[in-house]
Amino acid sequence: MEAGTTPQTSKAVLQRVVEHWGAEAWSREHGPDE
C-alpha cells in the first residue's frame, strides 16, 4: 500500500472497483439492462 493511501480511501476505491466489475459481469451474464 502507498504511504498516502488511507484505509478508508482504499476501501472506497476497492468497493467501486468491485461494483464496476460486478456490473460488467452481470451485463455479460444477463445482457444489457437498458
From TrEMBL:
Q: Which domain of life is it from?
A: Bacteria
Q: What is this protein called?
A: Uncharacterized protein
